[in-house]
Amino acid sequence: MQPVENLRWWQRGVVYQIYPRSFKDTTGNGVGDLQGVIEKLDYLHDLGIDAIWLSPFYPSPMADFGYDVADYCDVDPLFGDLATFDRLVAEAHSRGLKIIIDWVPNHTSDQHPWFIESRSSRDNPKRDWYIWRDTPNNWGSFFGGPAWTYDAQTGQYYLHQFCKEQPELNWRNPEVKAAMLDTLRFWMKRGVDGFRMDVIGLLIKDKDLRDNPPNPNAPPNLPENDLFSRLLQVYNMYQDENHAVMREIRQVLDEYDDRCAIGELWGPLSEWVRYYGEHGDELHLPFNFRLMDGMTWNAQQMRAVVDSLEAALPDFAWPNYVLGNHDRTRLATRFGGEAQARVAAMLLLTLRGTPTIYYGEEIGMEDVPIPPDKIQDPQGINLGPERTRDVCRTPMQWDAGPNAGFSPAGVETWLPIAADYVTRNVAALSADPHSILTLYKRLLRLRRATPALYGGSYRPLDVEPDNVYVYLRKADAQRYLIALNFATEPRTLAIPGETGGRILLSTHLDREEAVSLDALSLRANEGVIIAL
Ligand code: NOJ
Q1: Measured CA angle at 30 (ends 24, 33), to 5 deg
Q2: What is the pLDDT of residue 412?
Q3: Average model confidence (pLDDT) for the chain?
Q4: Which of 241, 255, 293, 476 is catalytic?
Q5: Contact 68, 442 (CB under 8 A)
Q6: Strands (E), 187-233
Q7: Which residues, in sequence order, are bridge partners of residue 103?
Q8: What are phi and psi of 242, to 5 degrees?
Q9: How many CB atoms lie within 10 A of CB 134?
Q10: DSSP H or E segment with residue 514
Q11: Residue spans of alpha helices (H) in 321-418
């Protein structure tokens, strides 16, 4: 256990993800921008988060909404310019907020000057900066179709595991590596505190680009073009050689003070945990999606995931938890609705490890149905409407006015606004002492003020009734009990070895009282934090 006073900002703090297109539009074009983020910094500060992660704002043709980068060292005019970015960093820092930016090292846009050169001829010096082959292997794209596109001009195929507009860089080429590592330095010199590194497990591919084996568990009825899910992802990701690259990336971050490397990773726990590095010399935080992906709303299941994670972590490794992001169904929709979302918020903000909140979770935003002709996401366009990620990327709901206060009146926003925005918005929920937004604020305040919650140990407790998750957080003499009822009926629990305590916070926001712990009553979907 690390003493709480030694914890770094990215261990104590709470990260808040902003999808800039969808946060606040200040130019009236229906798309959010960096100035919009600046204008909402007071809101974020008041909410009580510690760091902002910005999804990509780089110049981009937007084939994958910014994950197709045409210049790693600039800002797309849609979002502002470098001067706006610098102001955002300064304004955030003046409020004590850190800035984490997305870094997309696996692929560029096909409009990046490097790729334009690379595809211009077979003997161009940048030819080897990308992955070109005479014959494609059997790999499929995450977004449907093959992972290779034929380029008629030079008669070869290039690799892209996402859109065909996202050619993959060849990280085995030392010049590529050096150029990409320099982009990290560019942003750290501008004051950026950390990076969220996109699909970081994909950088190094099998040297011989071998065919992937068939996936015996591929779900039936896959769309015909879903070649990806029909294969096991053996040779296209998580290669052993990738770890040497992670260490080089980390060394670049370590050239600067106190920066943080977060990586987007999934896969089995045994592979995932290796990304902390054998000696803690790779990522600070491999993003942990284990409470999100494939999970149903069940206390025993959640506890099993947390316990297996805690057991797998080496001493130096700091945990983290994510319940939603711009690629997944919103948590309120996934877990059932606001009642479950409140308990999920208490779970996320009281587990041991860095939590990441996705914008809008604090007001209980749900997936927004997108009419088929309004689908923007390439994944939804290629693999079918039920796979579109647009549902979780709709504009933030600020108030009950036109366009929910996201864009000026009369503007068509880039994605539709949720039908419930008149009641589910920041202004309305801020004024309501029992709202989910108030719950988030109170949880964040309590967490920040309580070493046991932001830095203490975690110990699960066995309790009798099912579908209840109870754990202890402890730092020195400070002890807190968290009891979460996942069931839609009330539960009464006897907490082993404890007699009484005081409820500091209930997800219902109506209960602060001394309680006896030999018969603790929880209402349906109620979570409580108890000081012991
Ligand atoms: C993961 C990102 O989160 C997702 O939005 C994107 O489409 C792919 N990587 C490709 O960059």
Answers
A1: 40
A2: 98
A3: 98
A4: 255
A5: no
A6: 194-197
A7: 197
A8: -65, -30
A9: 7
A10: strand 514-516
A11: 331-335, 338-350, 378-383
Give the pLDDT of residue 2: 78
- Those residues whose C-beta lies under 8 Å from the C-beta of residue 268, and which sit 6 or more positions away, are none
Dihedral sign for Cα atoms in the order 395, 399, 400, 405: negative
Phi, psi dihedral angles at 472 (to 5 degrees): -110, 140
DSSP secondary structure string for all residues of 295-308: --S-HHHHHHHHHH
Identity of the residue numbered 420 = D
Q: List pLDDT tens digits, range 476-486.
A: 999 999 999 99
Q: How close is the Cα of 110 to the center of ligand 1, in Å?
A: 16
Q: Which two tokens stand for residue 123?
A: 């003997």
State whether residue 448 is helix, strand or coil: helix
Active site includes 255? Answer: yes
Q: Is the pTM of this model over 0.90?
A: yes
Confidence of residue 287 (pLDDT cuts 50, 70, 90): very high
Coil vs helix vs strand at 103: strand
Please name the residue that has the structure tokens 């993800």: 17
Rounded-to-integer distance, Cα 417 and Cα 408, Å: 13
Active-site residue flag, 293? no
Query: At residue 492, what are phi and psi to the nearest 5 degrees?
Result: -120, 130
Cα 67 to averaged position of ligand 1 atoms, centre (Å): 6
Instruction: Say which of 64, 165, 198, 226 is annotated catalytic.
Output: 198
* Nearest atom of ligand 1 to the alpha carbon of 325: 3
Q: Which of 162, 164, 389, 392 to mutate to test the pocket of ligand 1 (most atoms within 8 A of CB)?
A: 162
Burial label for 217, CB within 10 Å (0-12, 13-18, 19+), is exposed
The strands making up 98-103's β-sheet, listed across from edge to edge, are 285-286, 260-263, 194-197, 98-103, 51-54, 15-18, 354-358, 320-322
Cα 257 to Cα 14, 89, 352, distances in angstroms: 19, 16, 24
- Whether the pLDDT of residue 1 is over 80: the answer is no
Q: Could you tell me the pLDDT band of residue 474, with boundaries at 50, 70 and 90?
A: very high
Token pair 């926001």 is found at: 509
Does residue 67 have its Cβ closer than 6 Å to ligand 1?
Answer: yes
Q: What does DSSP assign to residue 484?
A: E
In the block, tokens 């052993």 appear at 240
Single out the residue of 341, 347, 336, 327 nearest to residue 287, CA to CA.
327
d(CA 126, CA 130) in angstroms, rounded, equals: 8
Place of tokens 């992660």: 53
Tokens, residue 4: 């709480």
CA-CA-CA-CA dihedral for 247, 261, 276, 294, to nearest 10: -130
What tokens appear for 273 in the block? 């945990």
